[in-house]
Amino acid sequence: MNNSSQAANGTQYSLLMCHRGNQSSALQWIKIIVYLVILFLALFGNAMVMWIIYKHRRMQTATNYLIVNMAVGDLLMAILIMIHNAVSMIRGTHSWVNDAPFGQITCKLRMISQGSSMACSIFTLTALAFERFFAVVFPMWKVVTVRRTRWLIVGIWIASLAAISPMLYAGKVKLYDGIPFCVEDWAPAFDPKRSPAIFTIVSFIFLYALPLLFISVLYSIIIAKVWGRDIPGNATPANQRLLNKSKKNVLKMLVTVVLAFALCWFLMHLNLFLMDFSDVFYPCGIPIGLQTTGFLFAHANSAINCCIYVIFSQDFRRGFKEILKPLFPKRSGTLIVEDGTRAGTTRTMEATIDMQTSYKGQPQVKAFKIIEDTKC
């Protein structure tokens, strides 16, 4: 492709258009397998997070409603973006449908879906930080209630769609060497060189750097408060430890989610900056390792959050076990043991073995049923 001629036409390249013919077949399939694992975890994990909170009424708190909102955004990312990416990777091309107006509409939908999902995540993380801040620092102020959280979620989605709304214009299907691609194209209404660079800077500031700064400040205050505050009244040392442990687990979980978002999306932002501000890397000069890692990490964020919830939250672990329980049915077996209470007696018993609650995969005997007693 001719860089100068395409730039003159006012079209912004997409990283997905860059041909990577020097990649080995084995490397391509490793990338595909990793991406399919990420896709499965994003679909299954986020659906389970939503179902667990829906089924357990005591988990329907302001914090968990915001967690559900993140799961919805991640699930939409998986359905609307990642499934198509997986199919395109297997086909070996990221070409787009060129049928008007269907191709143009779906291209704009893709741009909006990916951007709004990322914006929803960072806005929800900011809302979670504020919710935890008021719950810990000002516990008597009922600022973020369950009812208000529902309206807050509506506002998050409106803000997310508004933040990425320029893609309704810029997302277009363009032909390159006769192949249609869904790309970011700001012409003719806007400057084709400056507009994508400005949008990249604005997105980085308001959808990444500034929210993460606010979140960092809030969680720093919360952590100092939780680690240094005692329970008022006649709390026993046991109650003190229990409450502190619960608060610390929630904070660890939420801080880990924030760190995962920051790390996963950093490389994608770096790729965009290299494309928009360096002639060396535009359009296809970004090293394949950096491009692939940024692509996989950004989409892996949709699958990582549900794993973090399971690691840090006993409620989510219990919920996942309940859902997976039918896949590991109980098994019964017959054991013959010698009854020590009555000499010369052999007792035949039926043992119920529970595999799903066993420790380190070892069967756990849950119940005995006496079948018969035999005297020797």
UniProtKB/TrEMBL annotation:
Localization (cell): Membrane
Pfam families with a match to the protein in the record: 7tm_1
Membrane topology: Multi-pass membrane protein
UniProt domain G-protein coupled receptors family 1 profile: residue ranges: 45-309
Principal location class: membrane
Species, as recorded: Desmophyllum pertusum
Family in the record: Belongs to the G-protein coupled receptor 1 family.
SUPFAM superfamilies, alphabetized: Family A G protein-coupled receptor-like
UniProtKB keywords: G-protein coupled receptor, Membrane, Receptor, Transducer, Transmembrane, Transmembrane helix
Keyword Magnesium listed: no
Gene Ontology CC: one annotated term: plasma membrane
GO molecular function: G protein-coupled receptor activity
Signal sequence coordinates: none
Name of protein: G-protein coupled receptors family 1 profile domain-containing protein
Transmembrane portions of the chain: 32-54, 66-91, 151-171, 197-222, 250-268, 288-312
